[in-house]
């Protein structure tokens, strides 16, 4: 039986079996005990619910990252205790965080309730971070022009700009007194292609 046992071994266990001293195994029971003794230390220890207390949120770690690490550890625990998981989750949170304060004030009975509150805080946390980033780097496309200028037609905007230029040209002209009345002088018509007599004649015809 001991010889047949060796045919079922592979890797390090087979090498160990080959290196056994000749006539050192008196029975199959002795062989089994030596095999267990040799490889017992290489066996992974089974995790328990108390292993969750080792998962702690880092100071600069987002809440989403902590929850991901906690859940990854939780799924590796067979028959995980729900009360222990709830306690370990709260214990691992930053004590000055809003979620820790909420879970301390309002006791949760199920992990579903805990996760519901946690993901609500994640949504708030990520929204605040998104708004802060947007304020630091504003999108030029989101900067809207003045509503009055935006609603104006091109012809209206051109007339408004022309009026502003003419207003600036005439508003500072000196005031002359004629027969006791203050009247403004004639506008500067040097830029026009007609003479002053021709302009006066046209104005008279318009007044008839």
From TrEMBL:
Residue span of region Disordered: 129-180
InterPro entries in the record: Retrotrans_gag_dom (IPR005162)
Ranges of residues in domain Retrotransposon gag: 5-94
Compositionally biased intervals (Basic and acidic residues): 141-164
Domain of life: Eukaryota
Name of the featured protein: Retrotransposon gag domain-containing protein
Source organism: Brassica cretica (Mustard)
């Amino acid at each position: 039986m001991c010889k047949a046992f060796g045919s079922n071994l592979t890797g390090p266990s087979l090498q160990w079996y080959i290196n056994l001293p000749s006539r050192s195994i008196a029975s199959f029971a002795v062989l089994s005990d030596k095999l267990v003794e040799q490889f017992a230390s290489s066996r992974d220890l089974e995790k328990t619910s108390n292993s969750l207390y080792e998962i702690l949120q880092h100071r600069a770690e987002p809440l989403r990252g902590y929850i991901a690490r906690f859940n990854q550890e939780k799924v590796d625990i067979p028959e995980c205790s729900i009360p222990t998981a709830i306690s370990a989750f709260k214990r691992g949170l930053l004590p000055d965080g809003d979620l820790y304060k909420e879970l301390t004030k309002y006791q949760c009975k199920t992990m579903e309730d805990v996760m519901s509150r946690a993901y609500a805080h994640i949504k708030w946390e990520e929204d605040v971070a998104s708004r802060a980033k947007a304020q630091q780097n504003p999108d030029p496309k989101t900067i809207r022009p003045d509503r009055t200028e935006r609603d104006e037609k091109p012809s209206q905007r051109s007339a408004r700009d022309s009026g502003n230029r003419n207003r600036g040209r005439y508003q500072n002209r000196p005031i002359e007194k004629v027969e006791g009345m203050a009247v403004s002088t004639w506008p500067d018509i040097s830029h026009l292609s007609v003479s002053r007599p021709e302009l006066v004649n046209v104005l008279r015809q318009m007044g008839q």
